[in-house]
Design a protein that fits this description.
Layout lengths: L1 E6 L4 H10 L9 H7 L8 H16 L28 E4 L3 H14 L4 E2 L10 E2 L8 E2 L5 H7 L22 H21 L4 E6 L1 H11 L17 E8 L6 E10 L10
Helix pairs in contact: 3-4, 6-7
């Protein structure tokens, strides 16, 4: 099985975080202020929608550069995957608005229905700091009807209810790492069952960092981080080990943004 991990396109909270980090720009905006002003389930920005469209076009039209068995994109036979050169046949995304907005054009271009996978949501869950006491307050996220109306081509799993799907306050980092381990187990099961599948998951920066660490056996871990630009693509292959059988993973590449021009890399 080949797995493509895709970070969502630029969101409003991403822009706010960049302003906090920028030296000399809005320096009165502290990290505490960032938490105050961030929104629970942000939309993509104008740039984010551009990135998502460009990514979808790239996944539909990218030209072969290498043999398909070693790198992507590449057809096993000329024209075999025309209109879908990465041969993606399963597309998952989190139930967060920015992930759904990123997955929508991908599904439309490739003719694949995105499926919500709740466990690939971002660290923290859906929360803001708008409660009277200033502490983190969980919000339910999009409900089934809202997703059906805004993203009609998406398969909504039963764990998304008419009330939403997030019913806690802020998730801590340990629980995020636990989810990454759980998703890793699920991916290994999928690879054993459907070894020829090519799976894409639209997820989030911190969770993708945790998931990659889990896939290479480095959780819990705080000593390094995998960074991901918006709409970046990371490829992980699940293969049979040449050392005693069994499954192991090969990280082919991380954080590729070949599809974006320099001014759209965020």
């Amino acid at each position: 099985m080949i797995l493509y991990l895709i970070r969502h396109a630029q969101s409003a909270n991403n822009v706010l975080a960049e302003k906090v980090r920028a030296i000399g720009e809005l320096d009165e905006l502290s990290y505490d202020d960032y938490r105050l002003y961030r929104v629970a389930d942000p939309s993509l920005t104008e740039i984010g929608f551009q990135q998502a469209d460009i990514l979808a076009n790239y996944l539909q039209t990218a030209k072969p550069k290498h043999r398909a068995g070693f790198d992507d994109p590449g057809d096993l036979e000329p024209g075999e995957f025309e209109g879908n050169p990465f041969a993606i046949n399963r597309l998952y995304c989190s139930a967060m608005l920015r992930a759904l907005q990123t997955a929508k054009p991908i599904g439309e271009k490739l003719g694949i229905r995105p499926t919500i996978w709740l466990d690939v949501h971002e660290h923290g869950g859906v929360f803001d700091n708008q409660a009277e006491d200033g502490l983190a307050k969980g919000r339910p996220g999009l409900n089934r009807m809202e997703i059906a109306q805004s993203f009609p081509g998406t398969d909504v799993t039963d764990d998304v209810t008419q009330r939403g799907w997030w019913f806690a306050d802020e998730e801590d980092y340990a629980d995020c790492q636990g989810r990454a381990l759980r998703v890793t187990e699920d991916l290994f099961r999928m690879a054993r069952t459907d070894e020829n599948d090519r799976v894409a998951i639209v997820s989030h920066g911190t969770f993708l960092d945790c998931l990659l660490k889990a896939l290479i056996g480095r959780l819990p871990g705080y000593e390094f981080r995998f960074g991901h630009y918006n709409t970046s693509i990371t490829r992980v292959d699940f293969t049979a080990s040449q050392y005693g059988g069994g499954q192991h993973v090969v990280v082919r590449y991380v954080n590729r943004v070949d599809h974006l021009s320099h001014d759209l890399v965020t």
